[in-house]
Structure prediction request, 123 residues.
Amino acid sequence: MKKTILVVDDNPSIYLVFQEALGDIYNLKYCEDVFSAIKTMEAGDKVDLCLLDLIMPEETGYELLSYLNRQKLKIPVIVVSAKDSARAAAKAFKSGAVDYIVKPFDMKDVLKTIRDEISKKRS
Prediction:
């Protein structure tokens, strides 16, 4: 059975990039904001990993990381952000992200990180 990756980004073209590159390997779901992502998780949809943008119009990715911590959900989160800042990356890691990838990114690097994190979760 394919593992499920939740892509949370206000830019649907990012989801399409991930869908094209990862859709044969993983089941991908898309949420355009933090609120929708939380609703997806509260509905009981299985999520094995989350690809999360930090900067979105309503709420930031940090708020989703905080929600995951409060709910004690052990979902690995890889932040994928255009914000190339040591401060933002440090805050993301402190909030529970397992990796921080800056846009534009090399899909091979993203795929390797996803595989590594999903295999850790299985162990």
Observations:
- Helices lie at 12-22, 34-42, 61-70, 86-94, 107-122.
